[in-house]
Amino acid sequence: QVLTKANQRPTMSIIGIDIGTTAIKVCIMGSSGRLLAEASQPHHASTEPEGIPSKLHEQATTALLTMIESTVLRLPELLRADVTRVAITGQMHGLCMSTWVDSQPIAVSNNVTWMDRRVAASTMSLLQRIAQQHHLTNVNHGYGISTLLYWQQQPPQLLSWSSASNQAKLSDQTDPDVSQLQYRGGSCLDAIAQYWTHSPSIIGESLAHSLGMFEVKSRTWPSAALTQAGLDAKHQAMLPTVVKDGQLDHAMQDSHCRRLGLSSNARVIVPFGDNQAQVYGLAACLPTNKPTLFINLGTSCQLTMIVTAEQASQLKIANAMLELRPYFKDRHLVTLATLNGGNVLAAMAQSVVSYAVSYAPMTAALTVVHAAHFQVYPCLSSRYFKIGIGHLIVQPNLISYL
């Protein structure tokens, strides 16, 4: 639903875009910071069949792009015409590859999300040991570095132009010179920003950090560690150049400005992570700079505190669930991420679906799933579990709803 907050046109405004795991949210804010309009809708970009448990979790990047532009176009035309900046945030950790020729994007792969589990457990353990050995950021299933290594190991090479099923075309160019192809890796947020701007292969440090095995101080993925992990030089070269969050933008191509109804001088800020965006928005509302703990209950639960560079240098983080993340203006976030947000419902739904698929021939009126299936996740929002104490009783026709 589009909600227009004001009729007065600002002299300059910004569009904020949140590319979530399940939905797209956009808003327009005036130069004074006032919310003028907003819109949202689910993107239905997942490529995995509904109701069938799978280790794979991909999204069609072109479907994301189509839904983003559709949601932007739902905002009032007069307000869109004054937009001079576009800010993009959203899901972190995942990997999306794009193919370029002569500084123009011609194809894009699916977005492998943070929920993906295709990498073998033995490979994951190796990567985590190497990350600890080199004092790098954590890496896990669904993180960009582990996915890139997986792609490298798959025959035939997934990034081959001949593998048309793995890439969706972004232009009408046919049969490009293979020697001229360039492959770029990054988040789906970066792929969309670069499609709109035809900008160089860069990534903000918050999203670079989220790909895993990242060195915060040098803002790089150390080549020695990646080589030890088995990632060859060709695939290492696909990783983008890292820049500071919030300090760089690029002009949107005229054709995209016209199609979206934006100002002809609109510029796209290099995307940044959703954790950083959430904290930044909340911190701006605080009357003082006193130390504050920020709690986000979303797809997962995140507890976050802002620390200075000096405080960050003194921290010794021993807990694998605790991360030191980049933030704006050379500050950092100390973040504890736990699986007690929307992930609880996702795990519960997957258990229900898996049970139903396994026992499809049964025609019982009810399917009963013991609470033990989801008790392992602590939950701060008990309202999700008021259905019952000892058992969760689900009618078969509600499985698709879950």
Structure overview:
The chain has twelve helices and 21 strands. It is α+β, with helices and mostly antiparallel strands and about 400 residues long. The protein has a seven-stranded mixed β-sheet, with helices on both faces. A four-stranded antiparallel β-sheet has the order 10-8-7-11. It has a four-stranded antiparallel β-sheet with strand order 16-17-19-18. Strand 2 and strand 3 form a beta hairpin.
User: What is the strand content?
Assistant: 25-35%
Q: How many distinct beta strands? A: 21
Considering DSSP H and I runs of 4 or more, what fraction of the residues is helical? 25-40%
Which sheet architecture does the biggest sheet show?
7 strands, mixed
Average pLDDT confidence is 77
Would you identify the regions where 5 or more consecutive residues have pLDDT less than 50?
Answer: 1-7, 156-166, 361-402
The total of helices stands at: 12
- Class by helix and strand content? alpha+beta
